[in-house]
Design goal:
Blueprint lengths: L1 E4 L3 H25 L7 H16 L9 H23 L5 H15 L2 H8 L5 E4 L1
Antiparallel strand pairs: 1-2
Helix pairs in contact: 1-2, 1-4, 2-3, 3-4
């Protein structure tokens, strides 16, 4: 008999926010390609790397993957700090990135998300 953990609301919200971040990264890549943003292309690409690394991890969200929670924490922290710097330098959309990153970090560290990533959540669904 296989036991599967149900998805907590915090992880569901995290997944939705990661998909939103994926859309924002896509728009930013188009903006960089069209040279919409002022400044160095290298700086813009380096700013997007932590967001891109975070977005890729949405496809690996599974219970019992504690290392994924750690890597998401690191990449989202770097992205949030970079967005904070971008906000100080007048980068368009930086406030959205900073808010989105902070919200995802808060969701990652809720008890239900920690338990789900650790694979120890008490809400389990038995499949027959």
């Amino acid at each position: 008999m296989e036991i599967m953990m149900t998805l907590p609301n915090t992880v569901r919200a995290l997944r939705i926010l990661l998909y939103i971040l994926m859309a924002i990264v896509g728009l930013a890549v188009v903006g960089i390609a069209l040279q919409y943003y002022p400044g160095s292309v290298l700086r813009q690409v380096l700013h997007l790397l932590p967001a891109l690394a975070s977005v890729v991890q949405v496809f690996y969200l599974r219970p019992g993957r504690g290392i994924l929670r750690i890597t998401l924490t690191v990449t989202l922290s770097v992205y949030t700090v970079a967005s904070c710097y971008g906000m100080l330098t007048g980068s368009p959309g930086a406030i959205i990135g900073m808010t989105l990153g902070a919200a995802m970090l808060v969701l990652l560290h809720q008890r239900s998300a920690r338990e789900w990533f650790a694979g120890t959540t008490s809400t389990r669904l038995e499949l027959g």
